[in-house]
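Supplementary notes (optional reading)

For those who missed the lab, this is the record we used. Protein: DUF2759 domain-containing protein. Length: 58 residues.
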Amino acid sequence: MGVVIIFALVALLAAYGAFTALKNKNLLGAFFAVGTLAVFGWFAIMTLIESGFPTGTH
């Protein structure tokens, strides 16, 4: 389930972007970063719950 990893990475980058935007008092950037964090974070969590944690191939 590579999509869980991609969603989680996008959510982590959005969290960093939201923190940076809030630190620089960029409210529009913070709004979109928090929205992205909410959407991709939710997708990552729900995909992880529904499909399970990705396992390595041996």
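If you only remember one thing from this example: The mean pLDDT is 90.
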